[in-house]
Structure formats: structure tokens, C-alpha cells
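Support request from a user on the community tier.

User writes: "When I paste my C-alpha cells into the form, the page sometimes reloads and wipes my input. The last time it worked, I copied everything first. Here is what I submitted, just in case something in the input itself triggers the reload:"
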């Protein structure tokens, strides 16, 4: 890659903030492909690649996968043709080292920080269910799926209360300082994520259109 790709967006926030839930709407709005490091790592685990096998123990424990692994994964993904006009990063960067490395390969034009209090996060994550056929995200209380798909919905292995607490600790210790890092660069827009999915999405859409 000769020069950094222009026009990428970062969706930032704690686990369960609603990044994946809102990503679809932003993709429709901007035409940029979503790049979720969590989804890429889970696919690598299912495919039993070397990367997947080394990432699995960190993911199951609710810890961040080492920077060098993630940075390599992103560099490879940005070589693909659909990334040429920027992408929507979901869950990346998550450390200052990742953000610094990203500057070499992609220019970020907007960082949307979805803010949700910790006590809300636990209920969201423990109740989350995924549709393995479509990748759609549901919640037993906040967004139940239709009756006909209920039997195929699954729960992520790291969506249990003790792992969530580790993921939240990793977020506060290693990821949250990035909000200030992006704020200093004039790129951060804060969104109150503790509202309905539609209201959060409307707010993000308005932030991206200004
Ligand atoms: P990843 O898959 O990225 O997990 P995460 O950041 O913990 O985020 P989640 O996917 O849990 O939450 P989300 O914000 O997307 O919320 P969602 O929309 O699903 O990462 C997993 C692991 O991979 C990490 O722990 C780490 O090990 C590793 N990893 C990934 N990226 C890495 C990186 N860059 N560096 C190092 N390691 C990395 O919503 C959650 C639930 O809430 C759903 O059930 C949804 O229906 C519901 N919901 C959403 N919005 C609302 C709302 N407004 N009101 C009520 N309910 C809502």
C-alpha cells in the first residue's frame, strides 16, 4: 500500500455497546464495508487457522489479542479491493499502539463513541443471541428474533458474566484511553448508547452527515 486509504470510520465503545448492531445501518448509509476484528477472529477460530488457535485463549478469557496479531490482520484486510474508499472499523483500534499503526494504512475521518454504563452492559451481553446463518444480532429481551429462527440462535462462548467482567476491565484499562487520543485529534463524536436501537442509530446518522 503506497499511501494511507482515506475516509475510514471507527465505531468505538465497550463490549455490548451496540457497535455490531449499528454497523449495518452505517454500511447502508455510507457504502463502506464493515471490518470487525471480533468477527474476523471468530472466523479464524472456526477455521482452526494458526491465528485462530493462538487468538482463542485470549478471547475465551476476555483479554485483548496481542497487538501484532491484530495489526497484521488489518493490514491484510485493507489490501482487499472493497477497502479502497475507506471502511467502517468495528472494534478496532482497541489500544493506542493499534491506533498509531492504523495511521500508516488508513486515514480516519470520524470516530463514533457509543457510550453505555457498565451495569447495562452485563445484561446486554448475557442476553445476546446470534443467528449463525445471517450473522444478525438479537437479544432475549431487547430484540427477540422471530419465532421461526429461535431454535437456531446461539450464544457466543465469551458472552458469560465472568468473561464480560474481564472484557470490561480490558476496555477500561487498554481501550478507553483512546477516546481522549481521538478527541485531541478532533475526530471523536460521543453518542449516548443507553437509548433505543433506533434513537442511537438516528444520532449516529446525524453525526455522520455533519
Ligand atoms: P468483539 O467481537 O469485537 O466484541 P466486543 O467489542 O466485546 O463487542 P461486542 O461484539 O460484544 O459488542 P457490540 O458493541 O458489537 O454490541 P452488539 O451490537 O452485539 O471482540 C471479541 C474479542 O475478540 C475481544 O474480547 C478480544 O479478545 C478480541 N478482539 C477483537 N478485536 C480486537 C482488537 N482490536 N484488539 C485485540 N483483541 C480484539 O450488542 C450487544 C447486545 O445488546 C445485543 O444483544 C443487542 O441486541 C443489544 N443491543 C444493542 N443496542 C442496544 C440498545 N440500544 N438497547 C438495548 N439493547 C441493545
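"...and here is what came back when it finally went through:"
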Amino acid at each position: 500500500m503506497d499511501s494511507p486509504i482515506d475516509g475510514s470510520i471507527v465505531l468505538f465503545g465497550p463490549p455490548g455497546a451496540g457497535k455490531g448492531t449499528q454497523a449495518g445501518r452505517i454500511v447502508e448509509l455510507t457504502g463502506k464495508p464493515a471490518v470487525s476484528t471480533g468477527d474476523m477472529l471468530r472466523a479464524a477460530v472456526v477455521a482452526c487457522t494458526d491465528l485462530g488457535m493462538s487468538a482463542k485463549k485470549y478471547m475465551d478469557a476476555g483479554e485483548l489479542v496481542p497487538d501484532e496479531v491484530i495489526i497484521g490482520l488489518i493490514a491484510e484486510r485493507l489490501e482487499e479491493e472493497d477497502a479502497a474508499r475507506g471502511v467502517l472499523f468495528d472494534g478496532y483500534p482497541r489500544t493506542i499502539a493499534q491506533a498509531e499503526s492504523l495511521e500508516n494504512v488508513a486515514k480516519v475521518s470520524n470516530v463514533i463513541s457509543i457510550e453505555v454504563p457498565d451495569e447495562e452492559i452485563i445484561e446486554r451481553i448475557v442476553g445476546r443471541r446470534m443467528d449463525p446463518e445471517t450473522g444478525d444480532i438479537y437479544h432475549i429481551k431487547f430484540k427477540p428474533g422471530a419465532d421461526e429462527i429461535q431454535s437456531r440462535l446461539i450464544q457466543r462462548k465469551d458472552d458469560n458474566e465472568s468473561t464480560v467482567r474481564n472484557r470490561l476491565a480490558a476496555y477500561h484499562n487498554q481501550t478507553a484511553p483512546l477516546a481522549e487520543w481521538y478527541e485531541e485529534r478532533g475526530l471523536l463524536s460521543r453518542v449516548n448508547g443507553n437509548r433505543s436501537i433506533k434513537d442511537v442509530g438516528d444520532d449516529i446518522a446525524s453525526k455522520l452527515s455533519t
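Agent notes: The reload is a front-end session timeout and is unrelated to the input. The chain has a mean pLDDT of 95. The two ends are 30 Å apart (CA to CA). Escalated to web team.
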